[in-house]
Amino acid sequence: MERDIARVIITQEQLAHRISELGAEIAAVYPPNEDLTMVTILSGSIVFFSDLIRQLPMKMHIGLITVSSYGGATTESRGPQLLDDLNVDVTGHHVLIVDDILDTGRTLRMVRNRMADRGVRSVRAAVLLRKTAKAPADVHAEFVGFDIEDEFVVGYGLDYNNLYRNLPHVAVLKPELY
What we know:
The protein is built from three helices and nine strands. It has one domain: Rossmann fold, CATH 3.40.50. α1 (12-29) crosses α2. The two termini are 14 Å apart. The protein is of the alpha/beta class. It has helices spanning 12-29, 46-53, 106-116; strands spanning 5-10, 36-42, 61-68, 81-84, 94-102, 122-131, 143-148, 153-154, 170-173.
């Protein structure tokens, strides 16, 4: 797999350090002993999500929602498609949506709207990566791991054609491979 990588942009060590910081930032915002539901957008955010929740010293519920924006071997978003709806009741809860990347904002906008329609106390978002050149101003992530350039990245849960998710870092795939 490593021979398919053009360059690493975020190392395993940088990821671990920043996710620890994000955990502290998030813990400072949410009141203790109130209902918090962490909602992960599958499948890309699962690695980030699992590391992030272990940094949070609080009780939480976990919710799963599956949304796909990229079908198969493509680097162009076709827009978010809901594959599996949320598996838990979030009524009256604080909700923190966790996603891998904020680029066009369509997925995060859709999931935020779905949460707001369910009578939540609050809804915020945490993203591992934000493409600053593409992320629309009207789609806000309160917690951001890293700002990156508009490049197609893989690793640490992000994929190309459902491959490369297991890389321990975030990297740019060689362009000739896609």
